[in-house]
Amino acid sequence: MNLLWHSFVLVLLIFQGPICNCSSISDLFDSWCQQHGKIYSSEQERVYRFKVFEENYVYITEFNSKGNSSYTLGLNAYSDLTHHEFRNSFLGLSSSANDFIRLKRGSNAVGVLSDVGDVDIPSSLDWRDKGAVTNVKNQGSCGACWSFSATGAMEGINKIATGSLVSLSEQELIDCDRSYNDGCGGGLMDYAYEFVIKNGGIDTEKDYPFKEREGTCNKNKLERHVVTIDGYTDIPQYDEDKLLKAVATQPVSVGICGSERGFQSYSKGIFTGPCSTALDHAVLIVGYGSENGLDYWIIKNSWGTSWGINGYMHMQRNTGNQEGICGINKLASYPAKSSPNPPTPPAPGPSKCSTFTSCGQGETCCCGWKFLGVCLSWKCCGLDSAVCCKDERHCCPQDYPICDTIRNLCLKRMSNATIVQQPQKEAFTGKFRGLIYPF
Question: Which active-site residues does the annotation give?
Answer without folding.
Answer: 145, 281, 301
